[in-house]
Design a protein that fits this description.
The chain has 3 domains: 125 residues, Golgi alpha-mannosidase II (Immunoglobulin-like, Sandwich), CATH 2.60.40; 314 residues, TIM Barrel, CATH 3.20.20; 133 residues, Jelly Rolls, CATH 2.60.120.260. Helix content is 18%, strand content 35%. Strands 1-24-26-27-32-29-30-31-28 form a 9-stranded mixed β-barrel. α9 runs parallel beside α10. It is globular. It holds the Pfam family ASD1_dom. This is non-reducing end alpha-L-arabinofuranosidase.
Length: 651
């Protein structure tokens, strides 16, 4: 009995450490890899826009929240006065309110203080630009702008004086003398008189590409570094609205920023355990800015439009079929805005906003994750009109919120009849689901509609729970699943993790790809998985074989391979989901390595619960090494619980 036990133990140990031999077949291209294969999903959730990507630091800058003083408070220092919020009552105006301020501060100061988005982040030595619209009613009043830290200590200051008797814009800048993570801005009025103010704004000078009133440079840099193939915007459930009155309407987000009407963000009240009553959309980050962002990072824009349906988890409200035309016209007008000549109405607006050249829109989504007959009958109308008038635009349609089931099957059946371009599938599940579904697309119809894996993320503690974390366990499961997406590049044309951003002090949903506070940001382990795939995308799919079998989970090893025509590299991605190292040898069939070493990037951790944080932003991050190429083969050891990307330059 002991001998048998020892023999079995020895056999198990030898098999465990036996070298696995893989062959990448470069003699035959399986399919082209779409340039849009790996992309970004943006939704204004978790304070991703206002308070996040959009670098405005003042909350409720025009007093347009339903509670007009939200974010503001009265302050006094030896002076007195009063603040009255007036409303013009003009229902056609996006900006109907302003502050009427009476100042009695000949020997002191009186004014307003703004708290920002969970505080304001100031960096020492940086320049900040303040602006305001103001009108003097009487007297002589001077304004002193003061940046303060959490303790109320002044770290920056500027002054505006000589207000005119009609509405005019004013601006001033200051340089900070210290750093503050949770500062605020105080607006001190001095003198005696009455002044009216509106559109109060504060931006760092250092924005992405130094665009005035632009985007946070550190957050865009993280996106740029991913080299995404597309950016899907503005969501997500944000497109639907809780009801149709509060749906996202792209036309309300373009043109002058001051003319964009503030709207409650649907995530304001979505989760009772994570209420955010101060979550509104200023639309300073609107469709023009989204298109510009996509262009900046080299990605295709993928706007998603409301299809005449509000969120089916909320009101489930739908527009009548005979009243759907304005929604379809919005889609036609968006194509004109993005691609039309400057002589057209919407093309001219694009040019007036500073972009005469077209944005070259190629994709458009109709609805987010709607389902059942009410969606299909509305989508059919969009499909009929858009395919007739703009056959060059590929349409993304919805398969519903689940990756299987009756509603999912119904959507696919009906959309297949229409020969739909791309069908959007969403997957939020535990890590095991992602391992088990790495072969999900192996048996999809190669001649049917293509797949957009529009939203996916492994969940560590159920779905939409606050305990969810961006653990390495989740990221590694996603990597295994992504090898399956890549292996089926003839079916899957686009894929994106969701959601993208989360403010550490103002989030509603987790996990998320990138976390940030008022000054800092970091990528999660999931971010680095996405980045390794997107920066090693390649142009053509190759097969990876082990004894003539596709590598897709045997012995917990998953793999995919591509060829990159630009670099001449064969790129192989390996996921070792086991807790043991795996020795492998990889040979290229049909191509000869042109160098003696291969570049290797590795993500790994023996602790599946490891997360990145502000304190340890790269607890899990790629390491780079070289592996020798001998007799045309690369031999290396796949670390336990690891994603390994091998680049082999070939003739």
């Amino acid at each position: 009995m002991k001998k048998t036990f020892l023999f079995l133990s020895l056999f198990f140990s030898l098999s465990l450490f036996a070298q696995k031999k893989f062959t990448v077949d470069a003699s035959k291209i399986v399919a082209p890899v779409s340039p849009t294969m790996w992309g970004i999903f943006f939704e204004d959730i978790n304070f991703a826009a206002d308070g996040g990507l959009y670098a405005e630091m003042i909350k409720n800058r025009s007093f347009e929240f339903p509670m007009p003083m939200m974010g503001w408070r009265e302050i006094k220092n030896g002076g007195n006065g009063k603040i009255l919020i007036e409303n013009t009552g003009n229902p056609t105006s996006a900006n109907t309110r302003f502050a009427h301020i009476t100042v009695n501060a000949a020997n002191g100061t009186y004014g307003l203080s703004n708290e920002g988005f969970r505080g304001m982040g100031f960096k020492k030595g940086e320049v900040y630009n303040f602006s305001i619209a103001a009108k003097k009613i009487s007297g002589d009043v001077k304004l002193r702008i003061e940046a303060v830290n959490f303790l109320g200590q002044k770290i920056g200051e500027a002054t505006i004086a000589n207000f005119a008797g009609d509405w005019k814009p004013y601006a001033a800048s200051f340089t900070t003398t210290d750093t503050a993570f949770k500062g605020r801005v105080n607006l001190w009025f001095e003198g005696n008189g009455v002044v009216e103010v509106d559109r109060l704004s504060l931006f760092p000078k250092n924005t992405w590409r130094n665009r005035p009133n632009g985007m946070r440079s550190d957050l865009v840099q993280l996106l740029y570094d991913m080299k995404p193939g597309f950016i899907r915007f503005p969501g997500g459930c944000i497109v639907e609205g809780r009801d149709l009155t509060n749906r996202y309407q792209w036309k309300a987000t373009v043109g002058p920023v001051d003319a964009r009407k503030t709207l409650m963000n649907r995530w304001n009240v979505e989760f009772k355990n994570k209420l955010t009553p101060d979550y509104y959309q200023s639309f300073g980050l609107g469709f023009f800015e989204y298109f510009q962002l996509a262009e900046d990072v080299g990605a295709e824009p993928l706007p998603i439009l409301n299809c005449g349906m509000a969120c089916q988890y909320n009101s489930g409200e739908v527009v009548a079929m005979n009243e759907l035309d304005p929604y379809i016209q919005d889609a036609l007008d968006l194509i004109e805005f993005a691609n039309g000549a400057t002589t057209t109405k919407w093309g001219k607006l694009r040019a007036d906003m500073g972009h005469p050249a077209p944005f070259n829109l190629k994709y458009m989504g109709i609805g987010n994750e709607q389902w059942d007959e009410q969606y299909i009958e509305r989508y059919k109308q969009f499909h009929a009109v858009l395919k007739q008038k703009h056959p060059e635009i590929k349409l993304v349609s919805a398969a519903g919120p689940s990756p299987d089931g009756k509603l999912f099957d119904y959507a696919w059946t009906e959309l297949r009849k229409l020969n739909a371009d791309l069908i959007d599938e969403h997957y939020y599940a535990n890590p095991d689901w992602f391992y088990q579904h790495a072969s999900r697309y192996d048996n999809y119809d190669r001649k049917g509609p293509k797949v957009f894996a529009g939203e996916y993320a492994a969940q560590s503690k159920g779905i939409a729970r606050t305990e969810n974390q961006n653990t390495w366990q989740c990221a590694l499961a996603e990597a295994a699943f992504m090898t399956g997406l890549e292996r089926n590049a003839d079916v899957v044309k686009m894929a994106s993790y969701a959601p993208l951003f989360a403010h550490v002090d103002a989030w509603q949903w987790s996990p998320d790809l990138i976390w940030f506070n008022n000054l800092q940001s970091y990528g999660t382990p999931n971010y680095y998985v996405q980045k390794l795939f997107s920066t090693n995308k390649g142009t053509d799919l190759l097969s990876v074989l082990e004894v003539n079998e596709t590598v897709k989970g045997k012995d917990s090893v998953y793999a995919s391979a591509v060829f990159d025509k630009k670099s001449g590299d064969v790129i192989v991605k390996f996921v070792n989901a086991s807790s043991n190292a795996v020795a492998i040898e990889t040979t290229i069939r049909g191509a000869k390595p042109s160098k003696k070493e291969a570049a290797v990037q590795v993500l790994s951790s023996t602790d599946k619960y490891t997360v990145n944080s502000f304190e340890a932003p790269q607890a899990i991050a790629p390491s780079t090494e070289m592996a020798a190429i001998k007799d045309g083969a690369v031999s290396l050891s796949l670390k336990p619980s690891s994603l390994t990307v091998v680049r082999i330059q070939c003739k």
